[in-house]
Amino acid sequence: MDSLENQNNAFEFNDSNSEEDEDFALIKRFIDGEQIVFKTLVMKHKEKVRNLVFVTLGDNDFVDDISQDVFINVYHKLKDFRFESKFTTWLYRITINKCKDYLRKKKVRSIFVPLEDSDTQYGTKPFSEDIDVPHIVRGAIEKLPEKLRVPLILRDIDGLSYKEIADQLDCEVGTIKSRIFRARESLKFLLEPYHKELRT
Length: 200
Prior knowledge:
With 200 residues, the protein is mostly helical. 64% of the residues lie in helices and 0% in strands. The protein contains ten helices and no strands. The longest helix has 20 residues, at 38-57.
């Protein structure tokens, strides 16, 4: 299977050094009292947060509410930002925690429809010339358990290093590597029926 980044460009988020420098400059201005620049930070990163919430939860109904909670949290905590990591790494950590809070509050034990009961059963759906590849990939990711799904998203979609992911999820780097490997193997199985479409 080709790299997930090439298959699913709709979800790619790439932070350049210039973007990181710009983020740091905006944060410093905010800390110095220029609070109006916070809106610029929100506009720059809101779609990244919304996509991460959606792909993590697989539920579009609460994306806006959770994203808003994320940025409210960021607003109140931004003065404590230590410039020791990328702003996006810090932002993603807050986003993931908000998603976990959502799941806890709703007492959701499983947020996915079992594979055999899904309307779209990978392995039985006929091929189509106008098949929606990003939708297929996203649907397959949503089938993964949370402990496999989140590291995969952070690595293959957001481009974080293993160390950054381990820091965010409070795990050992070896554990993160193992979970990402298992997630990729599971995706290979789920996406196998669409092998031809994904290689085009």
